[in-house]
Amino acid sequence: MTLAQSLSIGAPEVVLAAGALVLLLLGVFRGNDSLKGLSWGAVILFGLTALTVIDDAPARELAWNQIYVADSLSAFLKILILAGAAAAVLMALPYMQRVKQHRFEYPVLIVLATLGMCVMVSANNLLTLYIGLELMSLAAYVLAAFNRDEQRSTEAGLKYFVLGALSSGMLLYGVSLVYGFVGSTEFTRIAAGLSAGGERNMGALFGLVFVFAGLAFKVSAVPFHMWTPDVYEGAPTPVAAFFATAPKVAAMGLFMRVALDAFSGMIADWRQIVIFMSIASMFVGAVGAIGQSNVKRLLAYSSINNVGFMLIGLAAANAAGASAVLLYLTIYLVMTLGSFLVVLSLTDADGNAVETLDDLAGLARSRPWLATALAIFMLSLAGLPPLFGFMAKLAVFNAAVDAGLWLLAVLGVLSSVIAAYYYLRVVKILFFDPPADVVVNGEGGAVINNGMMIAAAVFCSPIGYLLLGPLAQATRTAASSLF
């Protein structure tokens, strides 16, 4: 394959890379006053990238000596990633104005992280996987400590960097073991090598464990979740929203591709690992959130809990399970973005962020629409019908039952009941507690943020079921790339 053909197939990454360089140069020459222009430029860049993704979506094509794959799965995941990244850029504009952090680097870092995520979901080689993962992570470490004058943000960045470096080392060690015992880092050759011997390859199994450990850190699955609450709480709210959405989509999509493509010959081995992480994540996320008083920490544990549900679909190891994971990712992206948009809108009379649950008491009396939106997102995250989040959990439970994983599905339902407690507690505080009168109408209610919040709330409401048919068809098409 010629270089021109490879560049054509990898057009989304080419556009993002070129755009990131242009934005960086503009920022350097124009300074921090260019933040607003660069932010909108990043959003336009994401739109152009999405057009190149859609244009190349139908066929499965390999590029750059088969280390890069463009198929319906990568196209679906890239659309979600680009949407999450665009939302993170837009919601940051009023926030940056309020905290007086007019730094042009923010949209540039988001674009670079997005470039890494797009490389991740198109990886057809363990080394491509690692390069994409590190490109995303290096930008994410800086974003976590973006408010460098604030102790919490600096601490969050340092914790994320140290633990992220550890997970990257484990992943790279696993890659070296797989290469040593299988003889290749290309996904298709790994799958063929594992299937050819007829006997269990213990060396490759050890490598698989280390690779899965590195990926579990990126999706914040138990027992590699310890960084999540502190980083979400300490990072700026738009950054926390970004971490909870786009990178989660990319990492989970990569997890699926590695498990169901590269290690398809070891399903019986890695399924046990995934089941353990699923059960542990569901219950740690459900129980850990009960005692939280900070909204962002609560959403961090909610993220861990939801990752556990996604892993149920992966454990099914079939097309229905993969499709259920993609549907869950789509709905989860919108629910989580909506939740963080509400958090971003919570400010006191001095313009300071309000993040404590007690300060939200009686919010429904002073800001009923904001309280209603947060209630919709909380109940949808809980998976209560008739909200759209119910369909996400129903899909993964059905996939588990079809795969014979009855006990896993039952434990998933049980953890949903436990998790419902803290989601309903938030609703109770909003609507039934005496007003704290802390939250006022402030900067957080920017027109763009309010528009995205309303759109997310409508999507999570029963109206979202109107999109279920097209979404289900798109997820089935994307999942078929793995089988």
UniProtKB/TrEMBL annotation:
One of its GO terms (cellular component) is plasma membrane. It catalyses: a quinone + NADH + 5 H(+)(in) = a quinol + NAD(+) + 4 H(+)(out). GO terms for molecular function: NADH dehydrogenase (quinone) (non-electrogenic) activity; NADH dehydrogenase (ubiquinone) activity; quinone binding. Residues 123-418 form the NADH:quinone oxidoreductase/Mrp antiporter transmembrane domain. The chain crosses the membrane at residues 6-26, 38-54, 74-94, 106-123, 158-182, 202-227, 239-260, 272-291, 298-319, 325-347, 368-391, 403-424. It holds the Pfam family Proton_antipo_M. The keyword Oxidoreductase applies. NDH-1 shuttles electrons from NADH, via FMN and iron-sulfur (Fe-S) centers, to quinones in the respiratory chain. The immediate electron acceptor for the enzyme in this species is believed to be ubiquinone. Couples the redox reaction to proton translocation (for every two electrons transferred, four hydrogen ions are translocated across the cytoplasmic membrane), and thus conserves the redox energy in a proton gradient. NDH-1 is composed of 14 different subunits. Subunits NuoA, H, J, K, L, M, N constitute the membrane sector of the complex. PANTHER family: NADH DEHYDROGENASE (PTHR22773). This is NADH-quinone oxidoreductase subunit N. It comes from Sandaracinobacter neustonicus. The gene is nuoN.
